[in-house]
Write a structure and sequence with these properties.
This protein is of the alpha/beta class. It has 2 domains: 112 residues, Rossmann fold; 200 residues, Dihydrodipicolinate Reductase, domain 2 (2-Layer Sandwich), CATH 3.30.360.10. The chain is built from 11 helices and 15 strands. Strands 14-13-12-11-7-10-9-8-15 form a 9-stranded mixed β-sheet. A hairpin with a 4-residue loop joins strand 9 and strand 10. The model has no long low-confidence stretch (mean pLDDT 97). The structure holds nicotinamide-adenine-dinucleotide (NAD). Nicotinamide-adenine-dinucleotide binds next to helix 1.
Length: 363
């Protein structure tokens, strides 16, 4: 049966998914948002999309065989479980959930012969990361022993005072919002080795100022100054993996960093070659050696419409899962592995010492 998508959550990214489906000619007949005005507003802009009267109604609709979950993080587990139990395949926005326990709820709802779940780790489908993956698969990087992942925003707190900055709804700040992308990228490129220990530090400097927070633009804004900010706005960590890999992570929603003075992106340190790239970048260079001399190789790739093409490729991959039984491009197990690392970084920060990734292990 052809992919027919129900969209759950009609906010910023639900709108992107609806537009992506429309561009690819993927049927998306129904949308549900608890804020009915949001659902109606999205339906009004996309041909063939109507609002469902309730989540139950959307999940009961026989013509819909899959859903994209694009709601705040605290609803991911509940909605994903209900969708799986209703027999719908799930494309689940990142992060998988707010806690590892919620990830386990989702995994427990999955059956070998049941509907499948693909994680919305969209940057795996972006041109620059795919170009890097090609270099790794061709053997030009060799064993990667270190990755440095940085995502810096000078003033980028999303939805200050709303669900993004309320721990009970988001599960955390930039660690879970941006770190989830960075850690997934590094793990995907390095072959998902088992994470062993993490040392992290989290800071909350700008968000707690609320009305005194100076900014120019805000994703999911405007700010709600009577809302909460009980998450971090900057996190740094070192994660150790089986086999020797280490990942250094620096993610910030807000910091006093002069614009563009600290490079954003992922640097991979390999025995044969190394490279640095940004998730939506237009350049990938591999630093290596050739004929006894140092060499920089420019990797050619098409970087046009990088984000749109990434969302399109993600949806094409999901269509193959639904229509052909293909393996999900990013699995629920991988979503959990990323979440476990983020949770350990948070725990390490609270305890001010290195901790095992598995919270059940003796420290
Ligand atoms: N892949 C990416 O690059 C990317 C980018 C941004 C956001 N996201 C993720 O997408 C999700 C949504 O983020 P956003 O920026 O679109 O947020 P948003 O606040 O703009 O939109 C969320 C929408 O969900 C609705 N909603 C809340 N609870 C609901 C429920 N129980 N059922 C149905 N609808 C509900 C809200 O009314 C709102 O319209 C988050 O998990 C976020 O981490 C991913």
């Amino acid at each position: 049966m052809s992919l027919s998508l129900g969209i759950i959550g009609a906010g910023s990214i639900g709108t992107v998914h609806a537009a992506t489906a429309a561009r690819l000619g993927v049927a998306a007949p129904l949308v549900w948002d608890v804020d009915e005005s949001k659902g109606r507003a999205l339906a009004a802009t996309v041909k063939g999309l109507r609002t469902a009267p309730s989540l139950d109604a959307l999940l009961a609709e026989r013509s819909v065989n899959a859903v994209v979950v694009a709601t705040p993080n605290d609803c991911h587990a509940e909605i994903a479980v209900r969708a799986l139990e209703a027999g719908k395949h799930v494309l689940l926005e990142k992060p998988m959930a707010t806690t590892v326990e919620e990830c386990d709820r989702i995994l427990n709802a999955m059956r070998p012969d049941g509907p499948r779940l693909q994680m919305g780790f969209v940057y795996r489908h972006a041109p620059a990361p795919l170009a890097v993956k090609g270099e790794i698969d061709a053997g030009r990087i060799g064993r990667i022993y270190h990755a440095k992942c940085s995502m810096y925003r000078r003033r980028g707190i999303p939805g200050l005072g709303g669900w993004f900055t309320t721990r009970a709804r988001s599960g955390g700040g930039p660690l879970i919002d941006l770190g989830v992308h960075a850690i997934d990228q590094a793990l995907w490129l390095c072959g998902f080795p088992k994470a062993l220990r993490a040392s992290g530090a989290c800071y909350a400097t700008f968000g707690p100022r609320m009305g005194g927070y100076v900014f120019e633009e805000m994703w999911a804004g405007p700010p709600k100054l009577d809302g909460r900010f009980d998450v971090e706005d900057h996190a740094t960590a070192l994660v150790r993996f089986d086999g020797g890999l280490t990942i250094e992570l620096n993610v910030t929603w807000a910091a006093n960093i002069p614009d563009r003075s600290l490079p954003d992106g992922i640097a991979l340190f390999g025995e044969k070659g190394g490279c640095r790239f940004t998730l939506l970048g237009d350049e990938v260079r591999v630093a290596t050696e050739a004929n006894g001399t140092l060499a920089d190789l420019q990797v050619p790739f098409d970087s046009s419409r990088a984000l749109e093409r990434a969302f399109e490729a993600q949806l094409r991959a999901f269509r193959k899962v639904v229509e052909e039984g293909a393996e999900p491009a990013a699995t629920a197990e991988q979503g959990r592995a990323v979440q476990e690392i983020l949770a350990a970084i948070d725990r390490s920060s609270a305890r001010a010492r290195e901790v095992p990734i598995d919270a059940r292990s003796a420290e």
